[in-house]
């Protein structure tokens, strides 16, 4: 959908909903309030419309709509209450409903119509109760506890009876008009009919930069082939083919990462290193002699080794490599000797998805959907996994990396609070160059974790939010 | 996070505006300028919608029925005035500065809108352009309806006698005892009784007694002699100082159509 169409749609939806709100106020006062309905109550069309608009749009729109609708009810002629009462209540209702929908959308990545409708119904009931409670607070002589007990159940019941119509109307008007509703980088929900959690699982799995990992079940069912055209492939360092360019394009849906001298983007395992200037970078394209043994044992020619899989024992000297790396990172720019040894030891746990270490268990537990990210780990990464002993020196190498600002922090493997991706290095560079603000970035199969997910994982209320979501049945 | 922060600032600004509006309206006693602005905006629209719905209700401005109802309102007001004059209350009439010659002028209009669940107010389609001001008696052929509380050029808002904020001074026909009627706030949706409290501790109430308005100074907000309802239940508690009762109003507040506003000169 082009932006012109989107803007036209938006303007049309705003106009239609404004007219609908005005009409709802007039019809409420001239028709609905005069109907001799049983139960001594009447539905509140304005509240229904406000809640429906709120769950279909954003919190700001919900708050403004609630304020406008409530104020119209406050000042239109036979108003028996103070001006501003309903404006306050409806404003809060609209904001809270839209915020809840947005929070759930951020957590699950999917917008469920039934969930939106449930939130709308709860918001309407809360709005009716809030109207009564606030009028009572302002000591309106008409609102006493006996009156509330008689009127409130009937009012809520009538509202709930009319709620599907209001919800359908607003959903029909705003279809395609709310950009974050149908973000183009997200999969259409029809592709994920049964297991909505799979998207989150795949995002988590891809965030760990598992090479060539493709989640079964992104099609109609597990057996059908994947609909994804671009599967991120992992090249360990020194990618000469164009595949890393493809990876960058797939992960960021923007222009490929611009590099100097027309080179393709390269995958680095030591976190997100800044792009090195030309001459120096071309020198450092392949690791130099003895890069694996580091400064301590310069005798083994390492350049002949296949760059994809480090051999047995390659990590054994990583402690001394870390010392060298620490010295080098403190003083010089560019790639120090022995750096790749330390970096690889930090990067390889990401690539290796077969061993279930406590760190990975933690990472899996912090996944938003709660399904384990390792459930698909039998897939084609077995051939590229590092050999035995790969993890042994990783603790000691972490401090060396932590001296750089952009490298993974110390203890990142143990806590796994901020999973970094190294594919295309779209996230960890401090700013996010490829993603528009406001839309959670990344492809739907998410080579990079979405920005909202990253922010949330760092949020101090994360635990509380998870507990809350678990209480309402979302998440694990 | 910038988006969230902006939204939060917007929400806080809206809440502050709402609280300011409530405060201003509270200070002005519910008739602030916001209400009059809203009346100017929504009044004509409600009039139009009231005309449309009046066609379906059969209580529009035209038609034989509405003409008869209008006449009925006029006659009711004249009857109230006549009873005031000949019923041995001429002294009272002069005391209240009621003009015994000019009589009442009755402006008729029909109800076009009603308040929500918790308020007993209606809007009629005549306003200050027709000479209506606040605090004037509203009645129909059956009896007392209420009093006007605010007007716009085209509409007037009527507080019904059943509103919990309304208090009507009444006289019990027969015994002549004085009392006050207070609404119990649930009338629009049903024929809820009004609470009657007599002022004299020695007075007695019987079931079936008729209650009429006592009248106010200058006929505002209530002219004397308009029938209100009959006593249905005497609810005097043993040991209480004043006798109390429930009064069922004559007028049907659930299906209000044509009403008359008594403009006392």
Brief summary of the model shown:
By secondary structure, chain A is mostly helical.
Write the layout of secondary structure elements.
The complex is a heterodimer of chains A (476) and B (265).
Chain A: H1 3-30, H2 45-56, H3 59-75, H4 85-108, H5 113-137, H6 145-173, H7 197-207, H8 243-252, H9 278-283, H10 318-331, H11 339-351, H12 358-365, H13 394-402, H14 412-415, H15 451-458, H16 462-471
Helix pairs in contact in A: 1-2, 2-3, 2-4, 2-5, 2-6, 3-4, 4-5, 5-6, 10-11, 10-13, 11-13
Chain B: H1 2-27, H2 33-57, H3 64-86, H4 90-95, E1 104-114, E2 121-124, E3 137-139, E4 144-151, E5 156-160, E6 167-172, E7 178-182, E8 194-198, E9 210-213, E10 227-234, E11 244-249, E12 258-264
Antiparallel strand pairs in B: 1-2, 1-12, 2-5, 3-4, 3-12, 4-5, 6-7, 6-9, 7-8, 8-11, 9-10, 10-11
3D architecture notes:
The complex is a heterodimer of chains A (476) and B (265). With 476 residues, chain A is mainly α. In chain A, 48% of the residues lie in helices and 0% in strands. Chain B has 265 residues and is α+β, with helices and mostly antiparallel strands. Chain B has helices at residues 2-27, 33-57, 64-86, 90-95, and strands spanning 104-114, 121-124, 137-139, 144-151, 156-160, 167-172, 178-182, 194-198, 210-213, 227-234, 244-249, 258-264. A 6-stranded antiparallel beta barrel of chain B has the order 1-2-5-4-3-12. A 6-stranded antiparallel beta barrel of chain B has the order 6-7-8-11-10-9. The longest helix of chain B has 26 residues, at 2-27. Chain B is globular, with a radius of gyration of 21 Å. The mean pLDDT of chain B is 80.
Order of helices and strands of chain B: HHHHEEEEEEEEEEEE
For the largest beta-sheet of chain B, the strand count, sense and barrel status come to:
6 strands, antiparallel, barrel
Distance between the termini of chain B: 65 Å
Overall shape of chain A:
globular
> Radius of gyration of chain B in whole Å, from Cα?
21 Å
């Amino acid at each position: 959908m082009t932006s012109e169409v989107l803007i036209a749609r938006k303007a049309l939806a705003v106009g239609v909903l404004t007219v609908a709100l005005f009409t709802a106020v007039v019809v409420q006062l001239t028709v609905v309030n005069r109907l001799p309905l049983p139960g001594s109550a009447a539905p509140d069309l304005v509240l229904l419309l406000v809640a429906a608009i709120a769950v279909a749009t954003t919190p700001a729109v919900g708050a403004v709509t609630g304020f406008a609708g409530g104020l119209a009810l406050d000042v239109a002629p036979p108003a028996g209450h103070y001006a501003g009462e309903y404006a306050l209540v409806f404003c809060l209702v609209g904001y809270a409903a839209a915020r809840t929908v947005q929070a759930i959308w951020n957590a699950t990545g999917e917008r469920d119509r039934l969930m939106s409708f449930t939130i709308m119904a709860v918001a309407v009931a809360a709005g009716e109760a809030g109207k009564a409670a606030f009028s009572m607070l302002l000591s309106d002589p008409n609102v006493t506890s006996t009156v509330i007990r008689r009127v409130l159940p009937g009012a809520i019941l009538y509202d709930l009876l009319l709620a599907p119509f209001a919800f359908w109307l607003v959903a029909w008007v705003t279809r395609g008009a709310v950009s974050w509703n149908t973000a183009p980088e997200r999969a259409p929900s029809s592709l994920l009919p049964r297991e909505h959690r799979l998207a989150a699982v795949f995002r988590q799995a891809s965030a760990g930069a598992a090479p060539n990992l493709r989640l079964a079940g992104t099609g109609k069912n597990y057996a059908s082939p994947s609909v994804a055209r671009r599967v991120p492939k992992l090249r360990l360092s020194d990618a000469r083919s164009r595949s890393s360019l493809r990876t960058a394009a797939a992960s960021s849906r923007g222009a490929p990462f611009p590099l100097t001298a027309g080179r393709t983007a390269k995958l680095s395992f030591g976190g997100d290193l800044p792009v090195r200037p030309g001459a120096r970078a071309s020198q450092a394209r392949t690791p130099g002699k003895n890069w694996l043994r580091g400064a301590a044992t310069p005798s083994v020619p390492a350049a002949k080794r296949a760059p994809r899989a480090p051999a047995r024992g390659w990590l054994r000297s990583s402690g001394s490599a870390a010392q060298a790396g620490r010295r080098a990172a403190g003083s010089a720019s560019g790639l120090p000797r022995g750096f790749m040894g330390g970096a690889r030891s930090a990067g390889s746990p990401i690539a290796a998805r077969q061993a279930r270490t406590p760190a990975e268990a933690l990472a899996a537990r912090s996944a938003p959907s709660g399904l384990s990210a390792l459930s698909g780990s039998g897939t084609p990464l077995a051939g590229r996994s590092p050999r035995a002993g790969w993890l042994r020196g990783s603790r000691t190498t972490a401090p060396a990396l932590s001296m750089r600002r952009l490298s993974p922090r110390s203890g990142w493997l143990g806590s796994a609070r901020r999973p970094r991706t190294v594919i295309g290095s779209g996230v960890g560079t401090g700013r996010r160059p490829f993603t528009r603000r406001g839309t959670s970035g990344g492809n739907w199969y998410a080579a990079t974790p979405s920005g909202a997910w990253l922010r949330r994982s760092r949020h101090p209320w994360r635990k509380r939010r998870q507990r809350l979501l678990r209480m309402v049945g979302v998440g694990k | 996070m910038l988006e969230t922060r902006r939204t939060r600032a917007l929400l806080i600004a809206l809440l502050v505006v709402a609280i300011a509006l409530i405060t201003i309206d509270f200070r002005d006693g519910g008739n602030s300028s916001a209400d009059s602005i809203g009346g100017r905006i929504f009044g004509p629209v409600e009039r139009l919608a009231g005309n449309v719905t009046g066609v379906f209700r059969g209580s529009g401005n035209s038609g034989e029925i509405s003409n008869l109802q209008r006449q009925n309102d006029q006659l009711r007001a004249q009857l109230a005035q006549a009873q005031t004059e000949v019923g041995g209350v001429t002294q009272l009439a002069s005391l209240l500065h009621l003009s015994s010659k000019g009589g009442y002028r009755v402006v008729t209009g029909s109800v076009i809108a009603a308040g929500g669940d918790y308020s007993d107010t209606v809007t009629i389609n005549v306003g200050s352009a027709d000479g209506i001001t606040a605090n004037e008696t509203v009645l129909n052929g059956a009896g007392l309806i209420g009093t006007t509380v605010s007007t716009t050029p085209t509409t007037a808002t009527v507080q019904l006698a059943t509103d919990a904020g309304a208090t009507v001074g009444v006289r019990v026909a027969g015994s002549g005892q004085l009392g006050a009627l207070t609404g119990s706030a649930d009338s629009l949706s049903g024929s809820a009784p009004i609470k009657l409290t007599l002022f004299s501790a020695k007075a007695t109430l019987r079931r079936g007694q008729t209650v009429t308005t006592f009248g106010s100074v200058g006929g505002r907000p209530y002219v004397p002699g308009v029938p209100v309802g009959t006593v249905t239940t005497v609810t005097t508690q043993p040991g209480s100082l004043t006798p109390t009762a429930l009064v069922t109003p004559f007028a049907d507040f659930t299906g209000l159509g044509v009403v008359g506003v008594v403009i006392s000169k």
